[in-house]
């Protein structure tokens, strides 16, 4: 479980995350949705200790993140940031192997090599393993980054907008991989998404944020309603039940 208790983040006089308390259960897939600037990335960055909290506390699988050392935390939790600044003159295989660093500290064993092969297969990257990142399409590169975080083989996997600039097929493929990681590998996946329908169809739980606060949380059936989406985005939407799933239509 990820326990976020009274967490705030202040930049100068502005509170960008405002006293957030959350319990994200272990196992399953939780999506975080909400408008731009809601504080989603800042919250994920604080949970993974990439940004210090102004107030509050976070535990990940019982580990108090401010008290654990970086190497220990990196063996429990991996994160794909919204803007990762990895050098593009790395091959897919190099970047995936980079995910093993918290385990290998630079010395790859045969078992680490197996993890790399597995992650490459999991994301269907076999044919691209020797290519440099700057020789890939945006979707292929994104798949390599997802392989990198899965290769870290942590129980908790956080991904900030992994579907950015992906076409429909690539986006579906990534969501299926994340779903499998939760269902087959027992991982706890937390993902920031903008597409409400992806959140609705693939999540066990959705958290809605606006203005630094959590406005709502719950399973898609409870959360995907015209009222909550109006509260989150200030937009009138229609919700349809389609084959047991809630689908949001926002074209007018
Ligand atoms: N380093 C920073 N300094 C000042 N303000 C920041 C910084 N990082 C983010 N913010 C502000 O915090 C708010 C929340 O940002 P962010 O967490 O990136 O939102 P989201 O991911 O939901 O779009 C925004 O208003 C943003 O401008
Ligand atoms: Mg963001």
UniProtKB/TrEMBL annotation:
Any one cellular-component term (Gene Ontology): plasma membrane
SUPFAM superfamilies tied to this protein: P-loop containing nucleoside triphosphate hydrolases
InterPro entries: AAA+_ATPase, ABC_transporter-like_ATP-bd, ABC_transporter-like_CS, P-loop_NTPase, Siderophore_ABC-ATPase
Pfam families listed in its UniProt record: ABC_tran
Domain ABC transporter: 2-236
Family annotation (SMART domains): AAA
Similarity comment: family membership: Belongs to the ABC transporter superfamily.
Protein name: Iron complex transport system ATP-binding protein
């Amino acid at each position: 479980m990820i326990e976020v208790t009274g967490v705030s983040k202040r930049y100068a006089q502005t509170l960008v995350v405002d006293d957030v308390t959350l319990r994200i259960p272990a196992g399953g897939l939780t999506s975080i949705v909400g408008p731009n600037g809601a504080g989603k990335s800042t919250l994920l960055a604080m949970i993974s200790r990439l940004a210090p909290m102004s107030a509050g506390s976070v535990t990940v699988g019982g580990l108090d993140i401010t008290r654990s050392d970086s190497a220990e935390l990196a063996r429990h939790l991996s994160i794909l940031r919204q803007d990762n600044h990895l050098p593009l003159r790395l091959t897919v295989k190099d970047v995936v192997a980079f995910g093993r660093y918290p385990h290998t500290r630079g010395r790859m064993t045969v078992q680490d090599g197996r993890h790399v092969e597995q992650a490459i297969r999991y994301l269907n990257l076999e044919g691209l393993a020797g290519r440099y990142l700057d020789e890939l399409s945006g979707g292929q590169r994104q798949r390599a980054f997802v392989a990198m975080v899965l290769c870290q083989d942590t129980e908790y996997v956080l991904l900030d907008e992994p579907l950015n600039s992906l076409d429909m097929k690539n986006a579906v493929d990534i969501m299926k991989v994340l779903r499998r990681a939760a269902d087959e590998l027992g991982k706890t996946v937390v993902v920031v998404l903008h597409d409400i329908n992806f959140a609705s169809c693939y999540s066990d739980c959705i958290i809605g944020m606006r203005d630094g606060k959590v406005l709502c949380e719950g399973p898609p059936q409870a959360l995907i309603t015209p009222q909550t989406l109006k509260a989150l985005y200030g937009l009138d939407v229609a919700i349809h039940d389609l084959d047991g799933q809630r689908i949001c239509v926002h074209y007018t």
